[in-house]
Design a protein that fits this description.
The complex is a heterodimer. By secondary structure, chain A is α+β, with helices and mostly antiparallel strands. Chain A has two domains: about 50 residues; about 90 residues, Sufe protein. Chain: A (Alpha-Beta Complex). Chain A contains five helices and three strands. A three-stranded antiparallel β-sheet of chain A has the order 1-2-3. In chain A, strand 2 and strand 3 form a beta hairpin. In chain A, helix 3 crosses helix 5. The radius of gyration of chain A is 24 Å and the shape is flat. About 10% of the residues of chain A have low confidence. By secondary structure, chain B is mainly α. Helices cover about 60% and strands about 0% of the residues of chain B. Chain B has a two-stranded antiparallel sheet with strand order 1-2. Chain B is globular and about 60 Å long. Classes of the chains: A alpha+beta, B mainly alpha. Chains A and B meet through helix 1 and helix 3 of A and helix 6 and helix 7 of B.
Chain lengths: ~160, ~325
């Protein structure tokens, strides 16, 4: 029995370590997800309260100021569909940017033939960020920097044609 | 199909005679091809195996060069997220990491031996150096075994350092140092390396190391290799030997091993984490005494055994790996 144990020791040790690491990460993720959800809920509740509280006059103005800030880009581009191209990881990435009401409403990638699929699908996450921020000054996806910069660069090029 | 196989394994006369007698010759050819191990002399078998391995490596190098970095990006991503206190999402990098680790638990580090672009680059540089040494008659001194053994621990330090950098958020600030970035840019024929001078210098140093010491990067420095070698690899498809059946004092397997490994004893759960599953030792053993853990021989039974370097088994593992990569969109 003891020789059995010795023979299998390294395997059992590795297996236990792996199980512990995976369990720790899953637990971490569960706790973090719960915390983030709770935070988002609290934030949403707090916003609802501020907006509908008639007594909090200056908070309300602050809120409207903030919304004015985010719409700085509005109206700064000509409506239409604009195309641009920039170099990603392996080659050119072509995008088409739809501007309506002076705002970026959608970004579509026309071609990304030379990008690595796994990297490209990670980098696609910058598109909603661009639409949210109405700007290409957003963080690139870590690990997929080349493809992210390719998409952002192509959007920049496209918007050059849309400048008022 | 049969036409394609012929140039790889030219049939011997007795096989030709069998074809002539058998009008239904096509399945026969395939069967003979798969029984190749029993039909051909050892040297020819070794040559064919090494060619098959090179062809698999070239294909993975050309078409799937980024699997290694994508999987390691998964490791970096997980620790970056934990450091930030953010949730870990199921991203393509994490998926590639998890699938590749699962594959390694089943088949051992076949990925390293047959599919990793950096490993293949090292094999070719080493082969080139050996060829030049043979032509010029100047053989460089090999690294002493003790030194090599000590250096193989460095990869765990590299892995720990990268994990700490990711966890503290410092990794994101270190741009232009990653030799893999320089390699993948060159592979993609993107020569705008201005911001990656440090990475290019490191890459060149690594390539010199690869040329003079077989699998220099994989054995000593690869952080992904460090992760692989810590996996609880199952014994079924990894290599073992029955030491009592060996020739006295023979260490042909260790001498031919790129990682200088002593194989574990049959019938144990022991597995060498540093084994790349290249299979060179199997063909070099004078007693054909090396086999996978599943075989009857491992259990002290009959003659049937899976030796681990059979062509069909090599091709099967490569095909499964390829299928997984295509499914994951690497």
């Amino acid at each position: 029995m003891s020789t059995m144990k010795r023979k299998h020791k390294s395997f059992v040790l590795r297996l236990v370590s792996l199980v512990v690491i995976v369990a720790a990460l899953l637990t971490y993720n569960l706790i973090t997800q719960n915390r983030l959800d709770a935070e988002a809920e609290a934030r949403a509740a707090a916003e609802a309260v501020t907006v509908y509280d008639p007594l909090a006059g200056d908070v309300l103005t602050e809120a409207s100021d903030a919304s004015a800030d985010t719409s700085v880009g509005a109206g700064s581009w000509k409506d239409g569909t604009w195309e641009g191209e920039a170099t990603g990881y392996g080659g050119p990435i072509r995008v088409s940017v739809v501007v309506s009401g002076g705002k970026i409403t959608s970004v579509g990638v026309l071609s990304h033939d030379l990008e690595d699929d796994a990297y490209y699908s990670m980098a696609e996450a910058v598109i909603p960020e661009v639409i949210d921020a109405q700007s290409t000054a957003v963080d690139t996806v870590s690990g997929a920097t080349f493809s992210s910069n390719g998409i952002l660069g192509a959007v920049d090029k496209a918007l050059e044609g849309a400048v008022n | 199909m049969a036409q394609n196989l012929k140039p790889v394994a030219p049939p011997k006369n007795n096989v030709l005679e069998k074809w002539k007698r058998n009008p239904n010759w096509e399945p026969e050819v395939v069967k003979d091809y798969l029984n190749f191990e029993e039909q051909y002399p050892k040297k020819q078998q070794r040559q064919l195996r090494s060619w098959v391995r090179t062809v698999i490596q070239v294909l993975f190098f050309l078409f799937l060069p980024s699997a290694y970095s994508a999987a390691f990006n998964g490791v970096k991503y997980i620790f970056t997220q934990v450091g930030k206190g953010a949730a870990i999402q199921w991203t393509p990098f994490v998926a590639i990491l998890v699938v590749l680790l699962a594959y390694t638990i089943v088949f051992g580090r076949f990925f390293c031996g047959y599919a990793c672009a950096f490993g293949s680059l090292g094999d070719w540089l080493f082969a080139l150096q050996k060829y030049i040494a043979k032509k010029t008659g100047k053989k460089p001194k090999a690294l002493p075994r003790d030194t090599a053994k000590a250096l193989s621990g460095v990869k765990y330090v590299v892995l720990t350092a990268i994990i700490v950098l990711c966890f503290t958020g410092l990794y994101a600030k270190l741009t232009g140092w990653n030799p893999w970035d320089a390699f993948s840019m060159l592979h993609a024929r993107n020569f705008a390396l201005g911001k990656h001078i440090a990475a290019v210098v490191i890459l060149v140093v690594l390539m010199v190391g690869m040329a003079f010491e077989e699998r220099f990067f994989c054995k000593f420095l690869c952080p992904m290799g460090a992760v692989f070698s810590l996996m609880p690899t199952l014994p079924f498809f990894s290599l073992h030997r029955t030491r009592k059946d060996c020739l006295t004092g023979c260490s042909a397997c260790t001498k031919t091993c790129p990682a200088d490994l002593d194989l574990p004893e049959s019938g144990t759960l022991s597995v060498r984490g540093d084994c790349f599953q290249c299979g060179k030792c199997v063909g070099n053993c004078p007693k054909t005494n090396i086999h996978c853990g599943v075989s009857d021989r491992a259990a002290g039974g009959g003659k049937r055994s899976l030796r681990g370097n059979e062509l069909w088994f090599v091709l099967l593992r490569a095909a499964i790996l390829l299928g997984l990569f295509i499914w994951l969109g690497v």
